[in-house]
Design brief:
- Helix 3 (38-58) crosses helix 4 (63-88), helix 3 packs parallel to helix 5 (92-113) and helix 3 crosses helix 11 (196-235).
- The chain is mainly α.
- The protein is built from 13 helices and no strands.
- The protein has a single domain, classed as Orthogonal Bundle (ABC transporter involved in vitamin B12 uptake, BtuC), CATH 1.10.3470.
- The chain starts with a helix and ends in a 13-residue tail after the last helix.
């Protein structure tokens, strides 16, 4: 594929996939180590009804209404979990499962009953996103990367996902030591004067921002996979936190690139005519990487071994 074809057709969706994978994988490392990996799954379920309601109220798909809708849905979810836990006297995990699956089902029903065809927001879009359609119509080749006029025609999802990724990276760098202390020894972190409750909430909020930013472009499938698979695979490669985060970024990028390429060309190599979902293939590749590290990783079979800061 020449630059005149690759830059407008493949470069933007590939970069969006990479940015989304990194933005979800970074907080995923701490969620996995805190044994809260399913919070990533929960977030991806909660944001759907919030995003749909935000669209129904405003009539447009925009970043701020989407984030506000997702935030409101998260607040409702927390309240419902507490109410169910207290009234039903069941464990928090069961309450979370009931609330998150119910809210996701409510979001799907809202999509089915709403007229969202004009903005390409439907159940399939919610699951798999629209990564393949995020092309750069104004680009003519690699020279367009330095053309101000052409850059104005970039898909809106690319700069939004880039800003979200940079925000997640900055949060990780700025709060690296507090996150590390509270993750490995919450009691000691409290004696050091750290507000571990607020820090944990901030981590969940950052994960939610990454999920909301990625949701429209890549759908909930990639969000769920990237929160868990690259960090879990990285955990099987090393017992050092810094190296784990590095490995998770490598696996996230590898999943995005290989998944996108295999989605477009894999079926052709096998004799099929049509490509498959890029989001689905990216999630599949991340699962394969996790399976390979579980078999061949140097830390396999040592899931209980302590991670060193």
């Amino acid at each position: 594929m020449s630059g005149a074809e690759f830059v407008p057709l493949s470069l933007p969706p590939l970069l969006i996939g990479i940015f989304a994978s990194i933005a979800c994988a970074l907080p995923g490392n701490f969620l996995v180590l805190r044994r809260q990996a399913l919070i990533g799954d929960a977030i991806s379920h909660v944001v759907l009804p919030g995003i749909v309601v935000a669209f129904l109220v405003t009539g447009v798909i925009s970043a701020w209404p989407m984030m506000l809708g997702a935030g409101a849905a998260a607040v409702v979810a927390v309240i419902l979990i507490e109410v169910i836990r207290r009234l039903g006297r069941i464990e928090p995990g069961a309450a979370m499962g009931v609330v998150f699956t119910s809210m996701f089902a409510a979001g799907v029903l809202l999509l089915e009953q709403s007229d969202t065809s004009s903005v390409h927001l439907d159940v399939e879009h919610a699951l798999f996103g629209n990564l393949e359609s995020l092309i750069w119509l104004d680009a003519t080749g690699w020279s367009s990367l330095w053309d101000i006029e052409a850059l104005r025609g970039l898909p809106a999802e690319l700069p939004r996902m880039g800003v979200a990724m940079v925000g997640v990276i900055l949060f990780t760098l700025l709060f690296w030591r507090p996150l590390k202390l509270s993750t490995f020894d919450e009691g000691f972190a409290r004696t050091m004067g750290l507000n571990t409750g607020a820090l944990g909430l901030a981590l969940v909020l950052v994960a939610a921002i990454a999920a909301v930013a990625a949701f429209d472009a890549v759908g909930s499938i990639i969000v769920i996979a990237m929160f868990i698979c690259p960090p879990a695979a990285a955990r099987l490669m090393t017992n050092r936190l810094e190296r784990q985060v590095g490995w998770s970024v490598v696996f996230a990028i590898l999943s995005a690139v290989l998944g996108y390429v295999l989605a477009g060309y894999g079926p052709l190599w096998l004799g099929a005519r049509d490509a498959v979902s890029a989001a689905g293939m990216i999630a599949t590749v991340s699962g394969v990487i996790l399976a390979l590290t579980a078999v061949f990783g140097p830390c396999r079979g040592r899931g209980g071994a302590p991670v060193q800061g």
